[in-house]
Design goal:
Heat Shock Protein 90; 3 domains; binds adenosine-5'-diphosphate; rod-shaped
Length: about 475
């Protein structure tokens, strides 16, 4: 994973950081798991030890059976059990039928052993099947396992023999408890250290993202996070980077747009300024005033067009233009546009020919479609030249596609300009662009435009789900075709 090398320190206090919260959760969960695991191991072991102790004590008491029988009280005296038959820490008591202890060996833990033994014998039914004549209990205070069993004396008298042995003679449970405690503490310490390191390491890309975001300003959108990682952070960083790229393009376009718009406005404003200054500098003839006024009028026209186009594009960009589409005939729109532009065509000596106009129904907004077709025809009229100037408008319906074509026999457009025609403010023929310097008068007859017309045409076409196609060869005229899905 490659991240920015010098990461600035985060301003977030440690206790508010995700790192801390992750660590807290992680530790809490680990502690819970360790506690459950340890309890499980401990109680399993305890159960095994208790079971073993019962088995051990029962077998031991059975082994002592014969010795005990011999030791049981005679008619008037007490039997004596040889001390050596008991293991170290084992305790033994013999209780006669009257409930008196008549012999005991070893240090019995405190408590009423007679009552406990009698109670155990009474409760033994169904206790431990394999030792049916036994009863057993555990003394929690002393941690002793006791087994009690009736023993038949030689004189036919039944006594109770109680044998007690330590539950866990080797201290296995204590050892296990200590090991579990130490093991858990060690695991927790390692997990805390490792968890902190891991959380810190995995969150480093976030710091890189934050740092880049902090350095981005309106004037420097060129920075990228460039996180070469295939994980979620990599995805986030890539999304962030592509968002920045889009923002950068959009800011750049905006800046270019404003610069171009100001540039476009500066020229006519300068011309108006020059014309008025020149007219006012000295007494002029009526013709000279008229010429100056015509130039100012033409520049004013140009500025109005430009401002209108700019406003239209701004509204389109802001999503303020909502089209109310209805089913309509594309040929009707073509006829309306032709009617509107026939006077302009005849003023420019352009023959406006009408080709096929079959019914071609599409879903569209009449006003914007009319603007689109009018702009196309206006361009064709504007850019044709020569003696036999001709512009043809036709509509076709082919394979569920309705298209309108405006063709002219003008100068055509060089191939290198075609990919940029729809860029804002792009003009294919600089020679035909507005010329202005201090000594040259703008020629009102020169075709002039802002370079925004085709952008607007394309926007309208796309807003109707259509596309604009251009075919043009230098010297053989141009064909602009807009295709829509027919109803
Ligand atoms: P303008 O306002 O300059 O006409 P457009 O966006 O409508 O802007 O057109 C962009 C450029 O495309 C024009 O400057 C012109 O060079 C070229 N153009 C458009 N239509 C034609 C055409 N029918 N014949 C030749 N060139 C054209």
């Amino acid at each position: 994973m490659k991240t920015a090398t010098h990461l600035e320190k985060s301003n977030i206090p440690f206790f508010h950081s995700i790192r801390f919260r992750l660590l807290l959760w992680f530790t809490a969960i680990l502690m819970l798991v360790l506690i459950f695991f340890s309890a499980f191991v401990y109680y399993n072991q305890k159960r095994d030890i208790e079971r073993d102790s019962l088995e051990r004590a029962a077998i031991r008491l059975s082994g002592l059976q014969e010795d005990l029988r011999a030791s049981l009280p005679q008619e008037n005296g007490q039997g004596i059990l040889p001390e050596h038959i008991l293991d170290e820490r084992e305790v033994l008591a013999l209780i006669d039928s009257r409930g008196q202890i008549f012999a005991s060996y070893g240090n019995f833990p405190e408590g009423d052993i007679v009552q406990a033994a009698t109670q155990a014998m009474q409760n033994r039914s169904g206790h431990e099947e394999s030792y049916e004549d036994f009863a057993s209990w555990i003394d929690k205070n002393s941690n002793y396992r006791f087994v009690v069993k009736p023993v038949l004396g030689k004189a036919g008298e039944t006594s109770l023999a109680v044998l007690g042995s330590p539950l866990d003679p080797n201290g296995q449970l204590n050892g296990l408890l200590t090991s579990l405690l130490l093991g858990n503490l060690f695991t927790l310490a390692i997990a805390l250290g490792g968890g902190y390191w891991l959380a810190d390491r995995s969150l480093r890309p976030v710091q890189a993202i934050t740092q880049t975001a902090r350095h981005i300003s309106e004037t420097d959108l060129s920075r990228r996070i460039n996180l070469e990682s295939k994980d979620e952070f990599g995805e986030l960083a890539n999304t962030f980077d592509s968002m920045l790229s889009r923002l950068q393009i959009s800011f750049e376009r905006q800046r270019q747009f404003v610069a171009n718009a100001s540039h476009e406005l500066r020229t006519p404003l300068t011309i108006v300024n020059l014309e008025t200054s020149r007219a006012l500098a000295a007494r002029r003839s009526a013709q000279e005033y008229e010429r100056a006024l015509r130039v100012i009028h033409s520049e004013n026209d140009f500025m109005s067009h430009l401002v209108n186009d700019l406003l239209t594009l701004a509204r389109m960009d802001n999503g303020q233009v909502t089209l109310k589409k209805v089913p309509l005939d594309l040929s009707d729109v073509a006829v309306d546009a032709i009617e509107r532009l026939t006077p302009l065509a005849s003023r420019n000596n352009v023959k406006l020919a009408i080709g096929d106009l079959p019914e071609a129904r599409i879903l569209g907004e009449r006003q914007s479609l009319l603007q689109m077709v009018s702009n196309l025809i206006e361009n064709a009229i504007k850019y044709t030249d020569g003696d036999d100037k001709k512009v043809c408008v036709e509509v076709r319906l082919v394979d569920g596609c309705a298209w309108i074509r405006v063709s002219d026999n003008g100068p055509g457009i060089a191939p290198q300009h075609l990919p940029h025609l729809f860029d804002r403010f792009y003009r294919a023929d600089p020679a035909r662009a507005r010329v202005m310097d201090n000594d040259t008068d703008p020629n009102p007859d020169t075709p002039s435009g802002s370079g925004l017309g085709l952008s607007i045409i394309q926007w309208i076409a796309q807003a109707h789900g259509g596309e604009v196609l251009v075919e043009s060869t230098l010297g053989s005229g141009s064909k602009f075709e807009v295709r829509f899905g027919a109803l």
